Structure formats: structure tokens, C-alpha cells
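Q: Second attempt. The first request was missing the SMILES, so the protein and pyridoxal-5'-phosphate are both included now.
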Amino acid sequence: MKINDVKSQFPIFSKKINGKHLVYLDSSNSSQKPIKVINSLDNFYKNEFSNIGRSIHSLAVNATNKFEETRMSVKNFLNANSKEEIIFTKNATESINLVAHTFGQQNINKGDEIIISELEHHSNYVPWHYLRQTKGAVIKFAPIDENGDIIIGELKKLITSKTKIIAVTHLSNVTGTIVPIKEIVEIANKKNIPVLVDGCQSAPHIKIDVKDLNCDFYAISCHKVYGPTGVGILYAKKKWLERLPPYIGGGGMISEVGKEKITYAPLPEKYEAGTMPTAEVVAFNESIKFMEAVGIENIIKHEKELTNYALEKLKKINSINIIGNPKNKAGVISFTMKGIHPHDISTIVDEEGVAIRAGHHCCQVLHQKLNLTATARASIGVYNTKEDIDVLCDSIKKCRKVFELQ
Ligand SMILES: Cc1ncc(COP(=O)(O)O)c(C=O)c1O
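A: Got both inputs this time. The predicted holo structure:
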């Protein structure tokens, strides 16, 4: 599929917002959905609905097969070794909680150390904080420099004999920093420390190869990858999924249940308790096919061009301050404007049909470091165009007029 044809695949762009064409620049929050994903949800509920993994009637077998087809596609998408390493969850937040809880239960004792970074989303901090509260773990923050890059030398210095896990984002949802995960994993590997990667922002925008990264855990939210809400992915090396205890208990994750003894299902079901988001997982296969049809290399090239175009144009607007200037930056552009609160920016550009986000973006530690309480954020998706960026910049100029700034 050609980049120029992408936008037409998304029905929402034929709608008007406040009487204007929608310029959607909030994809880091959640992406819009291509028609094939929407049709898949519709078709599954109309024609194919059944719960999976339980009944053996035709509908149930078909639904189970389709669910497993998505698992296979995810395995290929991430280049995992086997489909047993792919666990479906509710979102990346649940994926990270799953690891923090099970890994913590088994491996964290009082005084043990967990390294995260100052870039982390609350979803990759709060689950580890629970271990600080319940187990007396110590959380250390790898610092960032003034550009928004993690200072790898400082991260190295934080590692001690008590370090039990390193958990870092692959791509910051505030600065757009692409974190050198491979380098961090190599450092951690030398000390036998597992690495969890929060891949929430990277999955829709860069090539992911978990074998090449050699990370132990990788967490994704499908709603950010042009897929439905309610589905997340946890990739984990098989050795961990075999070794760690189950997370949520209930139907579907057991092998045998007696009054005295319970045994658990083999992988991946051991980690998939209760009724799963069946239609949503099935529809996510269409999101992967969409990404493949466009081609990850084309997505990267297109988004890089747009990011550079946006940065150049935004920098020309008086009093705009772009947050971070990392070595390797994706299409996440947070900014402030002297004299205008980010919420006001968001409200004014919305009148022009432009959707951006304002706030701390669930990264309060990072905002504290930056001495800010909030930023405005424009984040790029594969459907965005240079015209979208032009409308964004014009609407930001309107903010200046509203506030009577020079
Ligand atoms: C970097 C990062 N990690 C984790 C999350 C949490 O995603 P979800 O709310 O889908 O679990 C987000 C969401 O914005 C994110 O940007």
C-alpha cells in the first residue's frame, strides 16, 4: 500500500470535527483504526462469534483458530522464537504488571534493586513501586541528559550485585527518544540481569525484533498499533514464562483442579485466565496485516520526514520550546509556549479540528525533571501528512493571536 493511500483506509478522516477536517496528532495516546480492523470486529460479532478454547462446536473451533492465527502473526511481527512466548493481556500496563508481580513474587526481596529511567510512563513505574511497598525493593532512576537521552554511563553505574531487573521504555511518549535497548541489554546480560522493554510507543513506529534485541520481556498495547482497545501483548522468553508463577487465576489457565491440588495449563494459556477479548484479538490480525501492507521501512521513512518537517516549522514559531533533542527521535513532539498553558493550546487548536494532547502524559517524574507541570504534545501516525502539520502550525499561530502575543 502506498503511503498516499493510507489515510483513505481510516473512515474517521471523512468526519468533520468542529466543522473542520480532522487533523489527528494524538496517536501516541491511541491510534485511529483502519476499515479492515473495524470490519473484522463487525464481522466476528455478526457471523463468527464464540468464546474460545472451551466448547468444541464449529463456531468455537473457528474462533479459537482465528485467535491463534493472530498469536502467530504477533510472533512473526516481533520475530519471537515461538508462539508460546506471546501472551495476550488487556494492555501494556497489564503486561508490565504481570511481569512486576510474578517476577517480584519470585525474585525480589528486601533491599533488592530495580532500575528504571527518568523517561518512564507511570505504567513502567507504578508496578515496580508496588514491589517497593510490599517487598522493600529499591527503585533507581537512570538519569537523562538535557537532550532527553538516557545517560548510559550513569545507568551502568547504578548496577550493583543487588540489581534484579532493568525496565526501560523503547520510545519515550514525551521526548520521542528512541532508547538504545540493544546496548542496555548487552550491559545487563554481562551481569545476568533481565531487561523488560516498554514497547508501547515503539511498536507502531519502528522495527521490532525481540531476538535481535535479546530482551527478556516486551510489552505492547494493540490500540496504539492501529488495533482495537482491550488487547495488549506480553512477549517473554520462554524460560521466564516456564519459571515464573501464574498471574491471574481462574478458568482457562489450569490443567487439573482438585480439592487439594491445582496444576496449570501449558504456555501460553497459563497466563490467559478467564474469557479473553476474542473479537479484538482476531481483529488485531488485520492491524498487523495493515502495517505489513504499508511496510515498516516505509512507515519509518514517512514518519521521519514528517517529524523533521514539523520540527522545522514549529521552531520558526516565536516562543515555542520543543522538549528534548535526542540523538534518535521518533514522531512525538512535546512543546510549551511562553505565556500559554498547554491546555489552552489544546483547546484552541481543537477549534481548528486539530487533536493534540496536553498534560503530563503520565510521566510526572520526567516533567518534574524538566521543571514543568504540563506540555502540549503532537504525535504522528502513519496517516498524517504535511498538510496536517501545516494546519497544526497555523492553529498554533492562532493561539498566539488569541493571547495577543507578538
Ligand atoms: C510509553 C508508554 N508506556 C505505557 C503506556 C500505557 O499504555 P496502556 O494505557 O495502553 O496500557 C503508554 C500509554 O500512553 C505509553 O506511552
